[in-house]
Design goal:
Layout lengths: L20 E7 L5 E7 L6 E5 L4 E3 L34 E5 L1 E3 L3 E6 L5 E11 L4 E7 L9 E3 L7 E7 L4 E6 L5 H10 L7 H4 L7 H5 L7 E4 L11 H10 L2 E7 L22 E5 L1 H12 L4 E4 L1 H10 L9 E5 L14 E5 L6 H10 L1 H13 L10 E5 L2
Helix pairs in contact: 7-8
Length: 390
């Protein structure tokens, strides 16, 4: 397929800058009215695609199939909690338990005091305090430069190598036990929200919690597996009560999904590699569900990519430890999942392409057209799409 086939007009106001929230007004000590925001992870809008019957559902219905209306006579949209209506006992949800760390730091260059953004990618050597990073503006940062990250100049890094046009290797000059170093380094960082958010608002302390899945466990992601952000503790408890099983894999989400594709022919695009781990308990649970005819629902494009990297020719999930640069776009035959939860993503993004490969290009693009017309929210903090194989 061609890059231009994934182009559509996305109004800027439909890019979610915050997770789905409710707002409360209160009166402060001065008698002034203030508003505060409460995150409601599981109350975003939901759209459902039935890929075999080629139907798209947006609204709640009564027992007779009639669309429910609110007090103003408007159709009532499905919300994320309605996901439970489509699954039964012994079905399996596969989650990515990668944990986001506060990867974006701001420092100053020695002597010039120029402000530099440093984006931590991964630790290369814990004893030597070596990190693979991206810097911005890159033209100002050369080998030998020192960067300072706090007012007391206790956290200092030296540039020791150029890796790409924006990539650098930093050695942090901080002599202490490793865990103390990591704690101090992360205390200087902020949540690594994508630029389509931070270009429009500042990062807040709340983002450290909002941009993290509640089941996150294994540190290494520099962006959240966004579809997992919709799951609240209350919703997962309801799923547990219903008998739905949870399998966990780890894929440390990197920045490659945000890179612009610069070729029209998608077969020529190369993805960045991401580290992933799939262990025996997840394989056993997924494979048992498949053999018993139960649904296997992958939560997010990262899980879809990971399971397709590790699937065998028998269409069973295999243990895996390594890296993947799999790029999934239509047409593609999937081996593991028969359901998927994802977000609505930007035009010409690899995330949209992977979604279209799973749901069918025409049907997914029709769903995206409906999403824009019905003001669904897009991006990592946006609304959700459930794709079913029925």
């Amino acid at each position: 397929m061609k890059l231009s086939q994934f182009k559509f007009k996305l109004p800027e106001e439909l890019i979610a800058l915050y997770p789905h929230s409710i707002y409360r007004e209160f009166e402060n000590e001065k008698g002034e009215k203030e508003t505060f925001r409460i995150t409601r992870r599981d109350e975003c809008k939901l759209m459902v695609i039935h890929r075999k019957s080629k139907t798209i559902v947006m609204h709640k219905t009564d027992s007779e199939g009639n669309t429910l209306k609110d007090e103003q006579g408007n159709p009532v949209f499905l919300d994320f909690r309605n996901v439970l209506d489509y699954f039964d006992s012994e079905d399996v949800f596969v989650f990515n338990d990668s944990k986001v760390f506060p990867a974006r730091l701001y420092g100053t260059k020695e002597r010039t005091d120029s402000k530099i953004e440093v984006f931590l990618l991964r630790e290369l050597n814990r004893e030597m305090r070596l990190w693979d990073v991206l810097v911005e503006p890159a033209r100002k940062i050369r080998i030998g430069n020192k960067l300072f990250f706090d007012e007391s100049s206790t956290m200092v890094a030296e540039v020791i190598d150029n890796t790409t046009s924006r990539g650098r290797t930093l050695r942090f000059l901080y002599d202490c036990p490793h865990e103390e170093f990591k704690r101090e380094l992360y205390a200087l960082g902020v949540a690594p929200l994508p630029h389509y958010i931070i270009d429009h608002r500042p990062v807040t302390e709340d983002d450290l919690e909002d941009f993290q899945c509640i089941f996150a466990k294994n540190e290494g992601a520099v962006t959240a597996p966004a579809s997992g952000l919709h799951f609240s503790r209350e919703m997962m408890k309801r799923m547990e009560i219903k008998g739905i099983n949870f399998a966990f894999i780890t894929l440390h989400c990197a920045l490659g999904n945000f890179h612009n594709i610069e070729v029209e022919d998608l077969t020529k695009h190369k993805m960045d590699s991401e580290q992933m781990f799939i262990e025996k308990p997840a394989c056993d649970m997924v494979n048992r569900a498949k053999q018993e005819g139960k649904r296997v629902c992958v939560v997010g494009t990262s899980v879809l990519k990971a399971t397709e990297t590790a699937v065998g020719t028998d269409k069973l999930l295999k243990e895996y430890e390594g890296w993947t640069n799999k790029f999934i776009f239509p047409p593609y035959e999937f081996g593991v999942a028969d359901a998927m939860i994802t977000n609505f993503y930007h035009p010409m993004s690899t995330l949209l392409m992977e979604t279209a490969a799973f749901g069918g290009y025409d049907l997914v693009m029709e769903a995206y057209d409906l999403a824009v017309k019905n003001e669904y929210m897009f991006g990592c903090y946006g609304d959700a799409l459930l794709i079913l194989d029925d």
